[in-house]
């Protein structure tokens, strides 16, 4: 039986909400979900959420996961901190980076990368 997916929904919903806030009316969000087995034995869930909004400010990429840190005028700094805690409890990693570091425009975009071990299967 697979582990419950409930915690993953919290992560994805928060990420999509942040992306929607970032893109405004004219942007796009791409979500890629894959399962990979890099070592040939232990499958890893890979979630990549891309948007074409402004992207994180230079130097803020690591701080966005700190409880209370926000770049939004009406934010509380809880969402990504909670996501990091959930991903850590799943044994995984989460990172935020600019989607296009070399862009000359204000819309560099963001890439939220989430990796965690696939839930184990139990047979009865």
Tally of individual helices? 2
Radius of gyration, CA atoms, in whole angstroms: 15 Å
State the strand order across the main sheet.
Answer: 1-2-4-3
**Number of individual domains:** 1
* CATH T-level fold name: Heat Shock Protein 90
Largest sheet: 4 strands, antiparallel
What would you say the CATH architecture is?
2-Layer Sandwich
Q: Could you give the count of β-strands?
A: 4
- Full CATH superfamily name: Histidine kinase-like ATPase, C-terminal domain
Shape: globular
Average pLDDT taken over every residue:
85
Poorly predicted regions: none
Residue share in β-strands: 15-25%
Structural class: alpha+beta
Distance between the termini: 8 Å
The SSE string, one letter per element, is: HEEHEE
Structure description:
The chain is of the alpha+beta class and 124 residues long. The chain contains 2 helices and 4 strands. Strands 1-2-4-3 form a 4-stranded antiparallel beta sheet. The protein is globular.
């Amino acid at each position: 039986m697979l582990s419950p997916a409930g915690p993953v929904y919290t992560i994805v919903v928060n990420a999509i909400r942040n992306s929607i806030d970032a893109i405004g009316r004219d942007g796009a969000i791409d979500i890629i979900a894959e399962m990979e087995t890099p070592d040939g034995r232990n499958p890893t869930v890979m979630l990549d959420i891309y948007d074409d909004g402004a992207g994180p400010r230079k130097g803020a990429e690591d701080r966005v996961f700190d409880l209370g840190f926000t770049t939004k005028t009406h934010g509380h700094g809880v969402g990504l901190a909670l996501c990091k805690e959930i991903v850590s409890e799943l044994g995984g990693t989460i990172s935020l980076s600019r989607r296009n570091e070399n862009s000359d425009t204000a819309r560099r975009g963001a890439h939220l990368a989430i990796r965690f071990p696939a839930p184990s299967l139990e047979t009865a």
